[in-house]
Fold these 4 entries.
Entry 1:
Amino acid sequence: MDKNRNIVIGVDIGTTSTKAVAFGERGKVVSSHAIDYPIVQPHPGWAEQDPDVIFSAVIKSVSAAMKKANIFPHQVKALGFSAAMHSLIALDESGRPLTRCIIWADNRSVMQSERLLKEMNGLAIYKRTGTPIHPMSPLPKLLWMKEEMPELFDKVHKFVSIKEYVLYQLYSQYVVDYSIASATGLFRLDTLDWDIDGLNLLGITRNHLSEPVPTTYMLRGMKKEWAEQMTLDPDIPVIVGASDGVLANVGVGAVLPGEAAITIGTSGAVRTISPVQKTDEKGRTFCYALTENHWVIGGPTNNGGILLRWLRDEFGSPEREVAKKLGIDPYDLLIQYAQNVPAGSEGLLFLPFLSGERAPYWNANARGTFFGISLHHKREHFIRAVMEGVCMSVFSVALAIRDLTGPLSEIRVSGGFAKSPFWRQMLSDMMGKELLVPETHEASALGAAVLALYALGEIHSLETVKEWIHITSHHTPNKNNTSLYLELFYMYERLYHRLKDEFDVIASFQRKG
Ligand code: ADP
C-alpha cells in the first residue's frame, strides 16, 4: 500500500445502510464497508430509525474500511459526507434525541401537506424553497409534530437531520450544508438562509435550526474518542458534503448542463445539474443545492423497479420455480419472456401508480391501471407493459425537467434496472436519447469524495470525475420504437388526467378498507 496521503473517504448515510468507501487516485475503490440498519414502523405509514444506531454505523463502517485495506491515518487526505435527504430528529438541550429519526418514507403528515398546499399557499413555499410540499420533507413533519405532540414540540432545543446529528456527535457543532437544508422546505434558495415565513408558520426561530454552511465547508478537530475509533487523525479535514441524491449525479458523471442521471432501483429519480436555480410554475420538480453554482433539478418517482418485483412476487411463481431449477435470476426469465413481445405490448398500456405518484403529478391517490387488455394478451404482454410503464413514468419526469432546463442530451443510468440491457434499451427508445451505463457502484460516496477534493482545491471542477468513470455500455435509440412510444406516452398522459377523479374515489374506497 502506497504510504502517500492519497486516500479520500466518502461516507454515505443511506436509508438501508451507511457505506464508507476509501478511494485512491482517480476515484479507484481501495476498500469499502457497509453496515445495515432497520426502519421501524411504530404505526402504519410511519418510518423511523434510531439515530444512535446510525451514528455507530458511521464509526464502524469507516473503521472497517480503514482496516480492510490496512490504511494508516496519515494516508487519509479528507473525508466527505453524503446523507439521505428529508430526515428529522428533535433534540434536547444536551443534544440527546427526543424522537427517533423520522425519515423521508414517513407519511404521517399527509393531512398537513394537503393543508399546506391548499390553504397555506404551498406553491409559493415550494417556489421559495425548491422543495415540493409532500410528507417526505421536514416542513409538514414539523407541522405535524407541532399539532400532534405540542408538549414535546415546545421542549425541543434543535431540529436536525441525521447528518447534523452525526456531525454534532463528532464536533459539538450544529451545522447543516446548503444541500440538506435545501430539501427541508424551510430554506430560501435566493438568500441561502432559513425562510422566516416558514419559521413563523411553525412558531420556531432560527435558533431551533443549525447554522447553514456551504457544502464545501470544512470541519477539523474531531473528538479524540471517535477519531481513535475510526483510526483517523482528529485533524483530518472533514467536508460536510451534500445529500445523496445530488452527489449521485457527480458519482455517475452527470455534471454538465444537459446531462441527466436516471436511477431506477426500487423507486426512481431523474436529475440534472443547472448552474442556476430553477423552480417550476406547476410545482412538478425539485431544486436542491449541490454547490452555490450547481443546482440539481429533478423529480422522484415512486414507481420504479418495485413494479417488476411486485409482478415477480405476486404473479411470477412459475418463473420463480423455473429460474430456481436453472439457477438463474427470476427477473432475467421474466425479461426474456417480455422480449417475445414487440414494443408497445401490442396495445396493452400500463399506468404504474401502484403506490401513488410523486413527480410529476404529486398525487398520492393515483393507482395502477392496465388499459386495452384483450384476449390476445398473454402473460409476457403484461410483463413488457409493466416495464414500459416504468419507463413512461421516468420519461414523464424527464419531460417536466426539460421544460425548465432545456433538452437533455445525454442520459446516464444506474440502479437495479440497469442490470438488464433490454430494459435499458427500452428506456433509450422511449426517451429517444443516447443512454450510457457508467461503472460506479457507490455513486453517492464517490460524489462525496469528489466534492471533498473540490473543497480542498485539489480538483478545480466537479467535471474531473468524468475522466475517472468508465462507461460499460452505450445504447442508441431505435427511431421506429421512439415514435411508437411517443404516441403511447401521449395516451398515458391523457389516461392519467381522465382517470384522476376516479383515482380519488378508488383510493378512498381502499382507505375505508
Ligand atoms: P434499491 O433501490 O432498493 O437499492 P436496487 O437498485 O437493487 O434496489 O433495485 C431493485 C430493483 O431492480 C428490483 O425491484 C428490480 O425491479 C430491478 N432488478 C433487480 N435485478 C434485476 C435484473 N437482473 N434485471 C432487471 N431488473 C432487475
Note: The pocket of adenosine-5'-diphosphate is lined by residues 265-266, 305-306, 308-309, 329, 331-332, 335, 415-417, 419-420, 423 (CB under 6 Å).
Entry 2:
Amino acid sequence: MCGIVGYVGRRPCRDLLINGLQKLEYRGYDSAGISLLADGRIDTVRAVGNLANLRAAVGLDVEGGDGAVAVAAPPATIGLGHTRWATHGRVTEQNAHPHGDCSDDVHIVLNGIVENHSELRAQLTSEGHIFSSETDAEIVAHLIEKHYSGDLTAAVRQAFADLRGHYAFAAMHADHPDTLVAARQECPLIVGIGAEETFIASAIPAFLAETRIALAIENGEIVTVTPGEAQVTDAEGNPVERESDEVLWDDEAAEKGGYATFMRKEMAEQPDAVAETIADRLSASDRVDLGQVEAALTPEFVASIDRIVIVACGTSYHAGLVGRYAIEQWARVPVEMDIASEYRYRDPVVSPNDLVIGITQSGETADTLAAMRLARERGAKVLALTNIMGSQATRDADAVLFTRAGLEIGVAATKTFTCQVAAMYLIGLWLAGLRGTLSDDRLAELIAEMKALPHKIQETLDSVEDRVKAVARAEHRGRFFLYLGRNIGLPICLEGALKMKEISYIPSDAYAAGEMKHGPIALLDDSTPVVCIATDSPILDKVLSNMEEVRARGADVIAIATHGQEKVRDASDLVIEVPATDWVLQPILAVLPLQLLAYHVARMLGLNVDQPRNLAKTVTVE
Ligand code: AGP
C-alpha cells in the first residue's frame, strides 16, 4: 500500500506534492520521491526512510530551502510524488519512485502490484530497454515509452492493456508540461479539481487542503488531467461522463479519510489490504509463490518439516489459530499454537525439523521476538509474518513474509488481522503445493476462491453494517458478551471477544461451543447476548445444537451465517449473513461483523476506539 500524488496547474508544485505525500504517509513510509517537470526536463529526488528524509533531500527544511529540484527555473508547475511500502525490490533510493523510462522522458508513480512484471521485463529488455530498479513498477514507464508516439493518453492506454494486477499509476512526459495521465485497476485513485489546477492522488486527504472538488476514478478507467480539467475514458478510449463531488470533511475527518475514527477507516481498507497481500503471491492459478521466503525455506526443508509451531500475542495469536486449522487441513502437517509469553518460559522441546512461525504485525512485540529467538537458538527454522519492513522481527527470522496492510493507527488491530489470516492461508496452500497433499484441482479451486476474497470482504462490509448497528443498539448496555464457535470458527470468537473487551471494556468471553455444558452455560440468562459463528462447515449441525442449548436458557443468539443457509435462521434470534466461500476461508469474512459490533457498541458508549484505555499499539515491554 503506497501513496501516489500528482499536480498540474499554475502554482509551483514541489511543496504541494510533499504536503500531499505527508497526508498519505499512513499508506507507506519506507522511502519516497518526487519528480518535477520544467523547461522540458524532469528532475527527480528520492530518499530512503520517511518523508522527513525527502524534505531534507529537496532542502525544504534547510535555511533558504532551495535544495536540488527547488532551483528549477521557472519553478515546476507539474509533478509526481510517491511514498512507498516496498513489495518488489529492497528499500533503496534506486527502488524508490518516481521511475523513469530509458531517456527519463516518461516518469511514473504506482501504488499496487504488477503481477506479470517478470515476463514484461524480459520482453522489454529483449527490445533494448534498460532498467534501473528492481521494482515491478518501473515496467510501466518503459511500456509507455514503447507505445508513445506523441499522444500520452494513448500510450498509457496501451500500457494499461499490457498490465495484469492490482494497481493505480500516474504518468508524466517531458513533452507534455500541461498533462498528467493516470489509470486504475482496483487500487484507489481520485482526482482533485481546483481553479486552473488538478491533483491526482491515492486518497482525498492528499489535496483536501487545496480543493474540495473530487472526482472518483473507477476500475478500468484512465483519466487525463490538465490545469482545472479532467477527462475520464474507459479502457477502449470511450469518454466517460462523471460528476465530481464536493468533500465536506474537516481536517480531522480528512486525516481519517472521511471516517469518524482510524479504526473504522482501517476496517474499510481491508479489501485493498488483503488484495495487496495476496495479489502477486497468487498470480499463477495453480500454485502459491512466496518469493523470498522460498529462498530460505527450500522445498527440501519443507518436505522435511515434522511440526509447525506458531507463536504470537493478542490478535496475531488468533490469526495463527486460523492458520493452524488451514495448514493442518490442507498440508497435513501437525501444528502447535502457543502464546509467545508462555512459549518462551516453558522450556519448549525444539527440533531442527520444526518450522516456527512468529506472527507480529508491528514486528516489535517483545514476547513474540523472544519466542522466535529461543526457537532459532534451539535449531528450528523461523518464519516471521509481519506488517512492518525493517522491524526487529525481520532480523530475528530466517525468512519473512510481509502482510501489506499499510500503517495501522487504531490500537485495535483490524486490517492487519485479516491480512495475517490471508497470509496464513497462503502459507497453508504453499505447503500443500510443495508437499502434494492437495489435488491440483482442489489447489486451483482454493486459489480461485482466495482471489475472490477482497470483493467478498467489500460485499460483507457493505451489507452487514446496518444489522450490526441494530444489534449494538439493543445490546450496548449489556454486562457481558459471550462468543461461541467450533473448529475454525473458534479463533474468530476469540478475536470478536478481544475486540469487544479492548474497545468497549465490556467483559466478554469466547468458548468452544462444545465446552458450554461443561461450565460456562451457567453464565447465561435472558440478558446475555451470545454471538455464534455458524458459517457453513462440516460441523455446522454441532454448532446449531449448541445454539439450541443457549436459546433454551433464554439468551439472545446472534448468528454469523453463510449467505442463504436457512437452517441457521431457526436456531437463532438474529442472523447476520456473510458471502459464501470455502468453509476454511469463511473466518476472514465472519470476523468483519464482529469487528463492526465491537466498534459500534464502543461508539454508542461514547468511548475512544482509536486509543482505548490501558493499551498501546505495540507492546515492546516483556
Ligand atoms: C489487538 O487489537 C491488540 N492491539 C493486541 O492484542 C495486539 O494484537 C498484540 O499486542 C500483538 O501485536 P503484534 O501483532 O504487533 O505483535
Note: The longest helix spans residues 453-475.
Entry 3:
Amino acid sequence: MEQQLKELKEQALVKINEATTVKELNDVRVAYLGKKGPITDLLKGMGKLPAEERPKMGALVNVIRESVTEVLEERMTKLEEAAINEQLENEFIDVTLPGRPARTGNHHPLTRVVEEIEDFFISMGYEIAEGPEVEKDYYNFEALNLPKDHPARDMQDSFYITEDVLLRTQTSPVQVRTMESKGGAPIKIICPGKVYRRDSDDATHSHQFTQIEGLVIGEDICMSDLKGTLSLFAKKMFGDEREIRLRPSFFPFTEPSVEMDISCFKCSGDGCNICKKTGWIEILGAGMVHPNVLRMSGYDPAVVSGFAFGMGPERVAMLKYGVEDIRHFYTNDVRFLSQFHRTEA
Ligand code: 2U9
C-alpha cells in the first residue's frame, strides 16, 4: 500500500505540472483529492488494514495529501496569475479615449426670467410673497375695487369652482392677503405665480400663465418712486441704454394707472419688427394703489400711499429670447428647451 501511495503521489504531481489552465488544474484537484478520488478511497479502506498498521498508514496518507495539496496550490497561484496577465494584455482599455458627454438639464427659460426679475427686486429690498392659486372671489376681485357687476368678473373670463371660489386671475390677491396681515405696517413685496384665465390658447394667449406683481406701501410713496424703480428694472432686464415712457391707462385697482414702454432694444428707436416700427415696446402696467383698495385692507389713504405694478414673465422671456409662440413654454419640447443653456459659471 505504501508503494501504491507513492505512485499515486508521483502521478498526481505529473498531472499538476501538465495542467496549463486553471480549469485543467481544478480537474486534477477533483480527480486526486476530491471525495471520489483515490486518496479518499485509500483513507476509506484503512478499516481493512490490521489495527497496528493503521496509524502509520493514516499518517502517510495525510502527508501525501498535504504535499499534493501544497504543490497544487502553488501551481494554482501561478496559473491564476498567468490568466490575469493574459486578460490584462488582451483586454487593453484605452483610458485616453474621450468619454461621452453627460446630457445635463438646465433651467426652464421662464424660470430663468422669473429668477432674474426676483433677483433684481430682492436687491432693491423687496420680499417675495406667495399665496393660493384657488382663491376666494373677495380677494381676487372685491378687495381690488372690482365690484360684483364689473365686466372682468364675467363667468366667461374666469375659471369659477363655486360661486365664491375661482382659480386666481392675477396674483393681486396675494398682495391683499399681505396687506390684511400687516395691520397697516409698510410693505415692499413682489408676488410671482401662476394665474388662470378662460382664454383660447394661441401664439400670444394661454389659459394659464405667469405673473409677477409688486406692491410698495408706506408714507410719502409717490409716482416718482414708481418711475425710478421701473426705470432701473428696464435697464437691468434689457440693457443700460434703455429709456422708459409711461402712458396713461386704466386699472380698477390703481389711480392714476399707467402702461410702461421701453425703448426698443433691437433698433434703439429707429423702428423694426419687434417694436412694430414705433421704437417702443410695452412691458408692464402700473399705478398708484387706489384709495378704496388701501382702505378695504386696513390702510388709511390719508396717511399712507402705495404703488403697484404687474407684468407677464412670458412676455418678457419672449422679447428677451425672441420666442414667437407662448405655447413653447408649456409643451416641454427638448429641442426648444435645450437652446437655453446657462452661460454663467
Ligand atoms: C394691489 C393693488 C394694486 C397690480 C397691477 C397691473 C397694473 C397690470 C398686467 C400686466 C400684464 C397683468 O399679466 S398681465 O396681463 N398687470 O398691468 N397690475 S397694476 O396692481 C395692484 C395689485 C395689488 C393690492
Note: The CA atoms of residues 228 and 244 lie 10 Å apart.
Entry 4:
Amino acid sequence: MNNDAQKAAFSTRAIHYGYDSSSANGSLTPPIYMTSTFAFDSVEQGGERFAGEAEGPIYSRLGNPTQSVLETRLADLEEGEAALAMASGMGAISATFWTLLKAGDHVVADKTLYGCTFAFLEHGLKKFGVDVSYVDCCDLSAVKNALTDQTRIVYFESPVNPTLRVMDIAAISQLVHNYSNDIKVIVDNTYCTPALQRPLTLGADLVVHSATKYLGGHGDLIAGAVVGDEETVTRIRLEGLKDMTGAVISPMTAFLIQRGLKTLELRMERHSQSALAIARWLAEQPEIEQVYYPGLESSPFYQLAQQQMTLPGGMIAFELKGGLEKGKQFMNNLKMIKRAVSLGDAETLCQHPASMTHSTYTPEERMAHDISEGLVRISVGLEDVKDIQADLSQALSVC
Ligand code: 4LM
C-alpha cells in the first residue's frame, strides 16, 4: 500500500491513497479481482485466516482486494479508521443496524428520512422488537428528550432527503455522548460525500453512504458503505454483512467507485456551483412558491451549512404555486432533464418524492414527516448550467 499520500490534500488522496502499483505489475489502476474464493497455501494457513490469526483473503463475502482498495481510500477520505463497502446503501444501512441492535433496543431517528430507510425502521426493525422514535433533530431539546436507557442509535441525514434540512452534527453528537457513550450517532452522508462534509470529525460515530450516488457519480452502479472505528466496522463486516444480510459489493462495482472517487472533489464543486446558480434563479421565478437549498442566504440552514459543509451540494427541492398538479405538469414538460429517481449523476435528474422516493410513507405519514405532496426534487448534474436553466425555464413557462 502506498499511503504516503495520506498527508496530501483530499483530491490527491482520492486518486492515490491505499494502492501501490508496484504490488500489481505496475498496473496504474488497481486490478479487479473477479473471484469468489481464494486458494490457501496449506490447510494450516486457511485455518489461521479463518481464526483471524493471519492476514489474507478467504472468500469474497468477507472481503476482496479490489474492495479493500476502495475501503482503505474511503476510510481515509472520511477520516475514519475503517470502511466497509456493500451492495447498496440499504445494504449498508441494514447491516449496520442489524449488527448494533437487539430486540428491546430503541432508535432515535430524524423525522424525515429517505423513504426506504424509513420503511426499514418502521416496517422492518419494529417487527423484530426495536422501538423507533422520530423527532426533529434540528431541535436539540427534542433529541435529548427522546433518549432513553434503551437508546442505542441516533440516526439522521444531513442535508435531509428530500427537504434539505441541515442538522448540527457536532451539537447532536456532543449531546448524545454526554447522555451515554453506548449510543452511536450515525450520519447518512450521501448528499454531501466526504468532499463537502466529514461527520466523523464533528463527533459522529459512523457514517453511511449510498455510494450509488455521488461516490460512484455516473449512474451506472448500486452500492453502499459504512465508515467508522475499526472495531465497529469489523463487527458489521462479520455480523451484519457476513451472516445477516450478505449484501456484498461486486469487485467490478468496487472498481467503478474507485474510478468515481478520482473526480469526486471536482464533481462536487461543479454540482454545488451549478446548483447554487439554479437555486438562486428558481427563487426569483414567479411560478415558484418556495425553494429549499442550504446555499441560499434566505435558508434557515444557511449559517449552519456554511460552518459544517465546504459547499452547499447539488440537491435542490422546491414547490410550485399550484402545488401537486403544477409540479406534475412542470416535470412532464422537461426535455433534457430526466424524470428519474436517484441523484449525484452527471445527468440532471428530477423526481417527485411523494409518489416516488418517499412513497413508502403513507400520505398521513408524509404530512407528519414534512414531505409535502407538491415537492419537486432536482439533482443538478454536470451539464452546462445554461442548458439546465434553459430546460427548467421552458418547462416553467408552459405551466
Ligand atoms: C433517491 N436514494 O433518493 P441505495 N440514503 C440516502 C438515499 O438517498 C438513498 C439510500 C440511502 C434514492 C434512491 C432511489 C440518503 C437512496 C439508499 O439506493 O440502496 O444505494 O441507497 O433517489
Note: The chain has a mean pLDDT of 96.
